[in-house]
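Item description
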Amino acid sequence: EYQPHAHNYTKVLFGEKSVFRAGTIGTVAEKTAFGFVKKYEEEHGKKWRGAELNRLASGCTGVKRSTGQHPGGIVVVPDYIDVDDITPVQYPADDTSAEWKTTHFDYHAFDANLLKLDILGHDDPTMMRMLQDLTGVDPTTIPMNDPKVMSMFNSVDALGVTPEQIRTPVATYGVPEMGTKFVRQMLEEAKPSSFADLLQISGLSHGTGVWLGNAQELIRKGICTIKTVIGCRDDIMLYLIYKAGMDAGLAFKITESVRKGKGLTDEWKEDMKKHNVPLWYIDSCEKIEYMFPKAHASAYVISAVRTAYFKLYYPIAYYATYFSVRAQDFEIELLCQGYDAILRKLIEIEEKGFQATPKEKSMISILEMALEMTARGFSFKPIDLYKSDATKFLIEDDSLIPPFSAIAGIGENAAKNIAAAKNDGPFLSIEDFQTRSKASKTIVEILNGMGCFRGLPETNQLSLF
């Protein structure tokens, strides 16, 4: 929501004539080109061999098909350079009323010559802003050491549910960087109890060759705990300098080599042994391929703890925000049926295994969150023609009212048209609804099937007989 404001601020910083949206050129993909050739073959009664089909398709592949713009790319042109010396500029889709002009050439054609700012939208800050608006709690005032919040990363007790009810032993569904199946398994094994432990988890989950076959085995064998394994790249240098007493310059060299996956030289190993560095530590360094920086891990963990705080203390506001911002694929009618129906659907998708469709797989995280929400005593209400918002889930007591955009087949623009139409007063009939909302026949059928028009006549005409 804030992204356009951030984009426009670059005009203030650099001047309106110095910033442009990065243009993109959409080209014909290989499979699409093959489809063109096959269609031409059928329509003109031709019969070509496979080699000829491939030759013609390769000629179509890469041909310009459309132009677009990078979702967050802003090209900055210095004031002493005329942009036309590098690339023509144009209005997107020939819309001369558009706020921004885009570069006519694809950005990669001149990326070595001009600066591009990537001002991308991000879900986490959007969630924090929405939660602040709903609850009045400033996220920057949330403590990082609340015992109940910390307990959510190693049990579900704080939520008032059992692991069996929500099918996980930790309460991190929907918590950024901590809610995936892989990280939940890490939390289950490592049992973090403090902010420092969560930094370790973040480092381990984002590194390569750090957890699997390395820190995981050390914790399982009881050699280490989550506090003592190597989690972030900074840990190596600090350990070697302050605990082992090694030279700072050498400690830095070792850290740089390990974090890049280059391992240790024989000379370094001998030096580490002389300074009483344990063999397991040296062996662990040898297995690492990439290590995460602690500062980056800190940013992730701060966001995770803030999110967990809202989830624990302001649950209905949290669920409303999560489903509004993060969720994409819904089956609203299923969610309205409650806990048992959601659980059955989850089990059904999991039992399909590799046979599950991409859409079904993408639904899993939404269903897991809905399962947890209903297990905590909250519920979903059906779509309401007059109460539902265009794009946001609204709170009513201990329930959420889904938005129009949550219905499969209704896009954001159509949802906004419906929401705007209802503000003009009650609908007289289904015909009146369709006229005022500019809804297609398909959308009307979808809403009718969901019972949204209950009690409304088909048309404005009165029948006298």
